[in-house]
Amino acid sequence: IELENQLAQAIANDQLTLHYQPIYELSGKRVIGCEALVRWIHPKLGFISPADFIPIAEKSSLILELGQWVYQTACQQLQRWDLDAQLPNLNMSINMSPKQFDDESFFTMVPQLLRRLSLDPARISLELTETAILEHTERNQKLLATIKQSGMRIYLDDFGTGYSSIAHLATTPIDAIKIDKTFVDKACIYERDNRLLVSILAMAKHLELDVVAEGIETPDQLNLLISNGCALGQGYLLARPMPADEFADLVRSQG
Ligand code: G
Ligand code: G
Ligand code: MN
Ligand code: NA
């Protein structure tokens, strides 16, 4: 409860910030966008990982406030990169907690904000986990349809780590899958896992889904992904999550 109260204040007092991890077109090694990742700089405790405070936020309606804050901040940043920094049209990937599906107001706020900022909705992707779409309620299906109608894109995050993921590919309007880091890691160690990754990439291609590989840390992993047709990826080998200004410098430096 203590930390929960402090998180509520943190949202109000600007202690949260977003870092942006570049997402690359792998074969040409060019940045085509980024994933927004929230960070909490606590005045006394210092850096607190989202892995620690997102679960706390999810226990209450704080996650709704946090989710709205992240969304607004990320979209405003994208507009600033367009206008002030004159960066090429980049894409922005935003993580969504399953709980945010409870927040009807989010789904009316989102298209309004994009219109106000003159941002093409197709540049925004919402990263949903399987848990979010696992509940195949009519309501969730309707919300997913609403997202699609708005023009935004739906990415299935942490693909393969959840439950009955393949069924979801057929029944939900997903644009892309994000291949979880565990697959990328194991594919360069074990033959079976190697084949599994190759098969996932082939399946995605047949389904005309985009693929973003996550957690690329070694040149071997990168080469394996490229040679099997994985177009997009992110990971420490390429770039870590970074503050907005650093990200702008990085994109500018690639000309
Ligand atoms: O960046 P990092 O590896 O520390 O993130 C840890 C976890 O927190 C990841 O699972 C990531 O998806 C999640 N996370 C980071 N930022 C956000 C956010 O803005 N919203 C939600 N719901 N989760 C986030
Ligand atoms: O749950 P989600 O996939 O959104 O979480 C992504 C998390 O992975 C972020 O917290 C990000 O900081 C982290 N991350 C990104 N690239 C790498 C990487 O190459 N290695 C590791 N260990 N973590 C990474
Ligand atoms: Mn993610
Ligand atoms: Na992920």
From TrEMBL:
Query: Which intervals hold domain EAL?
Result: 1-255
Q: Which domain of life is it from?
A: Bacteria
Q: Which residues form a coiled coil?
A: none
Q: Which residues form the signal peptide?
A: none
What name has this protein been given in UniProt?
Answer: EAL domain-containing protein
The root-end lineage is: Bacteria, Pseudomonadati, Pseudomonadota, Gammaproteobacteria, Alteromonadales
Complete-protein stretch covered = 691 to 945 of 945
